[in-house]
């Protein structure tokens, strides 16, 4: 594998097969049509809150331990701040006073375990790679779901449209994933996290 000029785009382009599989899972098909049972959406949202709270905690850890290089430190501090804001917003929206005790589904347990392994065992740049599938896939799904404004789940589509993860990730990944070996490793991590996203929607 040659090292591509744009690693950020390469990772996505090399794994769009999983994105295309994800948009066809039953949960998203029913969300798009408006026939999704409310209970399924509530359970999905509860697991998503659990995901956000756990990744926020891990980002707090990464922000504290990564001091160099400075651009990577700034990245983790910025993403942690963004996650913290979103986590607080979700807790307020669903009237939780604090982090609720939530039982993980097997898919969510596997997903968060993969994150923890990246945090504990890999160089920080690979934790950044592990974050990217969530950012890119949710924007892509929101852009591609044909959900009309009359649909009860149109809010989910609108809330996830229009984000631009490239402004956080592109320069960083292109700078530090600068050898074929690093790109190959990043691709394996990106693909595993794309599969974890797929499995989260599939199990919802």
TrEMBL record:
Any one GO CC term of the record: cytosol
InterPro entries, per the entry: Haem_Oase-like_multi-hlx, Thiaminase-2/PQQC, Thiamine_Salvage_TenA
Domain Thiaminase-2/PQQC per the UniProt entry, residue ranges: 13-200
UniProt name for this protein: Thiaminase-2/PQQC domain-containing protein
SUPFAM superfamilies with a match to the protein in the record: Heme oxygenase-like
Family matches, as CDD domains: TenA_C_Bt3146-like
Domain of life: Eukaryota
One Pfam family this sequence matches: TENA_THI-4
GO BP, sorted A to Z: thiamine metabolic process
């Amino acid at each position: 594998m040659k090292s591509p000029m744009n690693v950020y785009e390469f990772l996505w382009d090399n794994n769009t097969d999983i994105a295309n599989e994800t948009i066809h899972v039953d949960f998203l098909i029913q969300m798009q049509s408006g026939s999704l049972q409310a209970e399924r959406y509530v359970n999905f949202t509860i697991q998503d809150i659990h995901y956000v709270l756990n990744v926020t905690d891990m980002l707090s850890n990464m922000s504290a331990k990564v001091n160099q290089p400075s651009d990577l430190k700034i990245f983790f501090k910025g993403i942690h701040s963004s996650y913290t804001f979103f986590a607080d917003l979700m807790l307020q929206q669903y009237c939780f006073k604090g982090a609720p005790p939530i039982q993980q589904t097997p898919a969510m347990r596997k997903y968060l375990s993969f994150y923890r392994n990246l945090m504990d065992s890999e160089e920080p740049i690979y934790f950044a790679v592990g974050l990217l599938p969530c950012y890119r896939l949710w924007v892509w799904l929101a852009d591609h779901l044909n959900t009309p404004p009359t649909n009860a789940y149109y809010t989910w589509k609108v809330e996830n449209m229009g984000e631009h993860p490239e402004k956080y990730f592109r320069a960083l990944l292109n700078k530090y994933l600068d050898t074929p070996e690093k790109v190959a490793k990043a691709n394996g991590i990106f693909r595993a996290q794309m599969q974890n996203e797929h499995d989260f929607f599939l199990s919802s």
